[in-house]
Amino acid sequence: MSEPPLPPPNQPVSPPESQPPNPPERAPALLRTKADLAAARPDLPAPVVLVPTMGALHAGHRALLRSARAAAGPSGSVIVSIFVNPLQFRPGEDLDRYPRTLDDDLAMCAQEGVRAVFAPSAAEMYPGGPPQVTVDPGPAGQGFEGEFRPGFFGGVLTVVLKLFHLVRPDVAVFGEKDAQQLALVRRLVADTNLGLAIEAVPIVRDPDGLATSSRNRYLSAADRELALTLPRALRAGQARAAAEDAAGDAPSAVAALAAAREVLRGEPALAVDYVAVVDPRTFGPPGPGPALIVAAVTAGGTRLIDNVPVVLPAGQNTERDFLDAADH
Ligand code: AMP
Fold it and tell me: What domains can you pick out in the chain, each with its CATH number?
């Protein structure tokens, strides 16, 4: 076979027709049981990077998959878990109608180079019914989501711990969208010496500013308009802090919060559970340095959470500011 002629210098080189620029997508192995996982685990090349999800994958999950792929490096492997965990839903929440889109999820996983998907049933994860021994999230899990969804973080951390034991990953990847969950997973790993690295991925938003979420598909067009007040309020808080900083004033948690509240108050149809400025590690009072404005609202029956980062200077914020902030 003769070699194709070399292109002239400085011309773009297109790959030969027979070789696509990207390797062909390979369907991930679908593991339905703990036994399937145990059988497949020895063949997963290290480092093994886990992305825990509840499925109905969207652009936010895709960013996690890409981060995981990068963390795994050229020779490591990414495994995604898809499990709608009944332990973290209360009666009356959306467990039964939570979107389940396994075929589409597998297609996204194939596109992003995922090696295996662990998608067990509830009976497989909790064969004896709800577990008797569960994880206590501790003080960082008491407020905010912990207050408005009692039992939620106990359910989340219990299933995350089970997944860590079953998969034994070197790295696990979580999104900053669920900032309190991320803080608690980091604490779980530190406090129980799990010995894996946790990687965080910034929030992915749709072009209109709404953070992508599996639950966004519940929103009607009118609900979505209403829901956009949430990121708008958070941006207003962030902008107030930045404006104070630019004016040479020390940005304060109270001023940032007031700006966010003002926007939320302008939309009385939006039910606000909380809006507050917190320390991203403890979900307690923010110190000097990185902080988060966090909020949870319900738009037309769909509950949404979101957050944005702000940086607070030393000596400006007190425990009292936080108490004001957490007041809702
Ligand atoms: P879920 O399937 O909703 O339990 O989410 C699985 C993981 O994806 C969690 O670590 C979430 O924080 C993360 N995630 C969900 N939505 C987003 C988003 N819009 N941006 C970044 N991460 C996200």
Answer: 29-201 (3.40.50.620), 214-326 (3.30.1300.10)
